[in-house]
Amino acid sequence: MNLWMMVAILLAVCVIGLLLARFLFKTVGLRRGNALMVIGLSDSGKTCLFYKLKDGKVVNTHTSVKENYGKFVPKLIQGIPEKEIEVVDIPGHSRVRQQLINQYLPITKKIAYVLDASDFNASTNAEFLYDILTNRKLIDQYKPASFTIICNKADIAFYVKNHMKRELERELTTIHNTKKHQHQSIDEDVNIAPYPLMESKEFSFENWSAFRNIPINFEFCSVTKEKDETFIKMMENVVSDL
C-alpha cells in the first residue's frame, strides 16, 4: 500500500468519524445536569409548585422577575428514595424568561411547563411553547430527558387536558405557518434562526416528540390543594431519576 492510499484511507476514516459524531450529537444531544426546570406564564402555579416540592405545603406567592433555585429533598414524594434534587423556577415575564431559560439549560435534565387550566389562554401559552420547542440550544446541545406539560387547576381532568392539548396544537400550527413565511421573506442566518417546529401540515405534540426524540406528555393536577394524590404521583414520576 503506497503512501497516498494510506493518506486517502485516513482522511476517509476522519470524515466518517466526524459525520457520525455530528449525527450522534444531533440525535442524542448533551445532557449537562440533573435539574428540573419549571417554566410557564406568570401566575400559572410554577412558584407554588416549587415551594410545594421544597416544603411540602402550599404557600402564597407573588409574581417576580427573579428565578427561584434550590437543592433539597422533596417533601410529599413517598415513592422514591430520599435524595436531594435540583430545581429552578423560571419567571414567566416575557422580558426575562428566554435569557434565564438559556442560562439554566446546561444544568437541566427535565422540563415542566405549567399552565393554568382555570384561566387558559391558548394563544399566549402557544407563543411561549413555540419559543421552547424551536430553541436550538435545547434541541442541539442540552436535549432534556423529558418535557412535561402540567395542566394546573384542572378539576375535570380528562376533558380539560385533551381540550387544551387540541387548542395548543391548533395555535402552534398557526404560529408555525406565520413564522415560516416571515423567515422566508428575510435573509436569516440558518445557524441562529429557530428550528422549524414541524414537518407535517399540522402540529401535534406526538409528532414533535418523535421528530426531536424528546418524550413529551400532558399531566393534570391542582398544585394549590394541600394533599392532591394526582400531584404527588405525577411529581414522583417527574423527579424519580433526577
UniProtKB/TrEMBL annotation:
GO cellular component terms attached to this protein's record: endoplasmic reticulum membrane
Membrane topology: Single-pass membrane protein
Recorded GO MF terms: GTP binding
Pfam families: SRPRB
Family from the record: Belongs to the SRP receptor beta subunit family.
Subcellular location: Endoplasmic reticulum membrane
Domain of life: Eukaryota
Name of the protein in its database record: Signal recognition particle receptor subunit beta
Keywords associated with the record: Endoplasmic reticulum, GTP-binding, Membrane, Nucleotide-binding, Receptor, Transmembrane, Transmembrane helix
Species the sequence originates in: Naegleria fowleri (Brain eating amoeba)
Lineage: Eukaryota, Discoba, Heterolobosea, Tetramitia, Eutetramitia
InterPro entries: P-loop_NTPase (IPR027417), Small_GTPase_ARF (IPR024156), SRP_receptor_beta_su (IPR019009)
